[in-house]
UniProtKB/TrEMBL annotation:
Record's subcellular location: Cell membrane
Assigned protein family: Belongs to the G-protein coupled receptor 1 family.
GO cellular component: plasma membrane
Record-level Gene Ontology MF annotations: G protein-coupled receptor activity
Organism whose genome encodes this protein: Synaphobranchus kaupii
Pfam families: 7tm_1
Protein name according to UniProt: G-protein coupled receptors family 1 profile domain-containing protein
Length: 340
């Protein structure tokens, strides 16, 4: 009897040990599986929720690219439009087209392939294109001013040389400003130095905003001088041709209203962003940055309407293209900057 009891106790102990081992193995497996699930879930990339403001900027960039691509194509495929005046308009349209493309790429890289390198690349493209757009506007203003004060020598080789110099300075300065973030002037490693647009630093934005204000003051002074010349010429023409005072008033008002439209569109679009970039920092709500930046993009949307589509020669080219009868020998009789 003792032998049987000992045998039963031994079997019971063995089975008890086996059950304990199985339970421990099962628990350890559950623990390992749970840890693995936690590790895998933490390793998965988190999807960034789409910001409606980024969608609005992307849509704006698409419209800007399409609109300015029409102007670039019209000037590029029409040899008679390759005069100094239209080269400056083409430079403006190219800069605005690249700005629209930069807004599209910013949206794609932000939500599809986010990385610091792509962020620096898209910000650099946007800074370059918007700087080139603003500098091209200044170059067009200078060209208009010189065409009025040097009307007799405007259609000379000096004008073409001066235009090429302005284009080189415009794009050289813009490319340099766009390369600054990639060359190390960014806040990727120091979030406290960020401005209202990441990864641009406050100092970088202050430089860009200050440059814009300088360009705006120069354009304002030049257009004031242009307005004086236009008023004086309109008065002289009215006296020579014995126009009625009402005709002189209508002509002068039309010229002044055109200049007011140009400066008003430029200032209303860019001044909010320039002032906010100069005074704001990263602690401000992002919605302010989106509102002012979206307003600035509207300038690239309005530039073709003001400088290109109102020009009679470009209207002829676009009308011919719509009719399917584009001719490279299309004549261009008027090349005065005042027609732009």
């Amino acid at each position: 009897m003792k032998v049987e009891d000992t045998s039963k106790q031994h079997k019971f102990a063995v089975s008890r040990n086996v059950e304990c081992l199985l339970m421990n193995a099962s628990e350890s497996q559950d623990v390992w599986t749970g840890e693995a699930e936690v590790d895998l879930s933490s390793a998965l990339p988190q999807e960034l929720p789409i910001n409606p403001w980024d969608v609005a900027l992307c849509v704006s960039g698409t419209l800007i690219s399409c609109e300015n691509a029409i102007v670039v194509a019209a000037i590029f495929y029409t040899p008679t439009l390759r005069t100094p005046m239209f080269l400056l308009i083409g430079s403006l349209a190219t800069a605005d087209m690249l700005a629209g493309l930069g807004l599209i790429l910013h949206f794609l890289f932000r939500y599809c392939a986010p990385s610091d390198a792509m962020q620096l690349a898209t910000v650099g493209l946007l800074v370059t294109s918007f700087s080139a757009s603003i500098c091209s506007l200044l170059a067009i203003t200078v060209d208009r001013y010189l065409s009025l004060y040097n009307a007799l020598t405007y259609y000379s080789d000096r004008t073409a040389t001066r235009t090429y110099i302005m284009l080189v300075l415009t794009w050289g300065t813009s490319v340099l400003l766009g390369l600054l973030p990639a060359l190390g002037w960014n806040c990727l490693r120091d979030g406290g130095s960020c401005g209202v647009v990441r990864p641009l630093t406050r100092a970088n934005l202050a430089l860009l905003s200050g440059s814009f204000l300088v360009v705006f003051v120069l354009m304002l002074q030049l257009y004031v001088q242009i307005c004086r010349v236009v008023c004086r010429h309109a008065h002289q023409i009215a006296l020579q041709r014995h126009f009625l005072p009402s005709s002189h008033y209508v002509t002068t008002r039309r010229g002044v209203s055109t200049l007011a439209l140009i400066l008003g569109a430029f200032a209303s679009c860019w001044l909010p962003f320039a002032v906010y970039g100069l005074l704001g920092d990263a602690s401000y709500p992002p919605v302010y940055m989106y509102i002012t930046l979206l307003s600035a993009t509207y300038n690239s949307l309005l530039n073709p309407l003001i400088y290109a589509f109102r020009n009679h020669e470009i209207q002829k080219v676009l009308l011919a293209a719509c009719c399917g009868c584009v001719s490279p020998s299309l004549s261009c009789h008027s090349h005065s900057p005042c027609d732009v």
